[in-house]
Amino acid sequence: MINILHSADWHLGKVVYGTKLIDQQRCVLDAIVDVVDRIRPDVFLLSGDVYDRAIPSADAIGLFDDVVHRIVHDCGVPMVVIAGNHDHAERLSFGSRFLARQQLVISGSLDDLFDPFYIAHPHDVYVHRVPYADPLVVRDWLLQRNGADDVAHIRTHDDAWEAIISLIAPFIEAHPQAYHILVAHAFVGSSQTEAWTDAERPLSIGGAQSVRPDRFSLFDYTALGHLHRAHAVGSARVRYAGSPYAYAIEEEHHTKSITHIVLDHDVHTELIPLIPQRRLRTVRGTLEDIRTHACSDDYVFVQLTDTHHILYPMETIRTIYPNALHVQHVAYASDVHDLESPQEPVPPTDVCSLFRTFYASVWQTDCNDAVVDTFCCWIDAVRAEETST
Q1: How many CB atoms lie within 10 A of CB 376?
Q2: CB of 55 within 8 A of CB of 91?
Q3: CATH number, residue 30
Q4: First to last CA, the chain
Q5: Does 71 share its domain with 169?
C-alpha cells in the first residue's frame, strides 16, 4: 500500500486586481503542511505552476522555500516537483541534482524522463516526471537528443505526449511488478467539458492543447496539474488536484482541497478540504442593499444592480468589504444582439430615435418621452455650438 499526497497550481505570488494573495497562500500552505505532518505519506507530489510568474517575487520564493523545508526536512517526506507552464523551468530546477540527495526532486527538463525517482518501499515505486512541454519543445528535444528525423508529425500536445510515453514505456515494461506514478502538467480531456478560468493560461489555440486520457493507462496513478478544479479524468487513476486557493471568480464554488491517494490493487481517493482565511466570492445587489451587509474581509467581486449611474461606488463598498477587488454595473450589461443577422428591422437613422432604441436595448425597457426630450435638447445645443464656431 502506497500513500500519496497530491497538490498542484500553487501560483505563489499571485496578484488579483492589484491585490497580493501571498498571506492567504501562506495560510493555505500551512494547512497543507499540517496534513503532511498528520498523514506522513510516502511521497508528496506537486504538479507544476509552483509560481504565478516566470520570475517570481522574493516573497513567493521565500514562502516556497519555507514550505519545502517543513515538508522534506521537518516531516521527512520526499517531495517531487515539476515545472508548469507558468514556471521558468530552468530557474525552478536550479540545484536540482544536489537537492535530489535531500529527497527534494525538482524537474524542469525532459531529460528526467530517463531517470525516474525511486522510493524505497516493500513494493518498488518509481515516480516519472514530465514538466510542461510545448510540442515544439518536444520536437527540438528529440532532434537534439537522438537525432531523430521523424518528428514532423508532432504538432499537437497529444502528439507530443504520445512520443513522450513511448520513451517511458520500455522502463515500465522492464519493471512490471513495480508501481509507476506519473507527475505531469497538461490539459487532459475535452475542451468541450472543462471551463477555463482567468487564472488558467491556455496552452494553445483550439483543441490542439488537449491530451487523450487513455494516454496514461500504463501508470498506476497520474498526478496532473493545470486545471484548477479537483477532478478525475476518464479514470480514478488520472486526476487533477486543483489549486489550493481560488484565483479567479469562476472558481468561487470550487471546493479547494489536497488529494490523498492510497494505492494497492485499486486506487482510493480522499479530498481533504482546505478552508481559506478569506474567500473569493461574488456579491450582488444595489448599493443600498450592500450597505446593510455585515462587514467582511473576503475578497469580493461586486455586481451592482442599480439602474442609475453611481459615482465612485467602491468608496462606499469598501466600508463594508475592505478587500473588494472589482465592481461592475451589471444593469448596463444587457444581452448582446447579433449585429450580422438582425432579428428586428433596422432602426431609424435620426439621432433621437436611435437614442430611444439604444436606451431600450441597454435597460430592457422603453425610454419615456421626458428622457428623450432632454437628450434631444442636448444634441440641439451641441449642434448650435458647432454651427456658431
Answers
A1: 16
A2: yes
A3: 3.60.21.10
A4: 87
A5: yes
**262 plus 288 within the same structural domain:** no
Grid coordinates representing 235? Answer: 479514470
Sign (positive or negative) of CA dihedral 221, 243, 260, 30: positive
Question: What CA–CA distance (Å, rounded) separates 284 from 55?
Answer: 36
Strand partners for 269: 261
Give residue 207's pLDDT.
41
Are 226 and 327 members of one domain? Answer: no
pTM for the predicted model, two decimal places: 0.82
| Secondary structure (3-state) at 57 | coil
List all residues 6 or more positions away from 295 whose beta carbon is below 8 Å from its beta carbon. Answer: 320, 321, 322
Cα 274 from Cα 255, distance rounded (Å):
8
Rounded mean pLDDT for each run of 10 residues along the chain, 389 residues in total: 96 96 97 98 97 96 97 97 96 90 93 92 92 92 77 89 95 95 92 50 54 95 96 94 96 96 93 96 96 96 91 94 94 47 54 82 77 86 76
Name beta bridge partners: 260.
5, 270
Question: Of 86, 132, 382, which Cα lies nearest the Cα of 247?
Answer: 86
What stretches of 204-350 show up as alpha helix (H) in DSSP? 287-291, 313-317
Which cell numbers hold the place of 298? 473576503
103 and 15 housed in the same domain = yes
**Cα angle at 30 between 19 and 45, to 5 degrees?**
100
**What is the extent of the structural domain holding 312?**
280-332
Same domain, 128 and 94: yes
| Number of compact structural domains in the chain | 3
DSSP string over 212-273: -GGGGTTSSEEEEES-SS-EEESEEEEEE---SS--SGGGTT---EEEEEEESSSEEEEEEE
**3-state DSSP assignment of residue 379:** helix
Whether residue 32 contacts residue 68, with contact meaning beta carbons closer than 8 Å, is answered with no
- Could you tell me how far CA 112 lies from the centroid of its own chain? 25
Q: What does the block give as the cell for 207?
A: 483543441
**CB of 303 closer than 8 Å to CB of 359:** no
DSSP label at residue 171: H
382 and 244 co-located in one domain: no
Question: Using CA of residue 308, residue 18, residue 204, residue 221, what is the dihedral sign?
Answer: negative
Q: Is residue 157 part of a domain?
A: yes
Max Cα distance, the chain (Å): 94
Question: 311 and 225 in one domain?
Answer: no
Q: Is residue 343 one of the residues assigned to a domain?
A: no
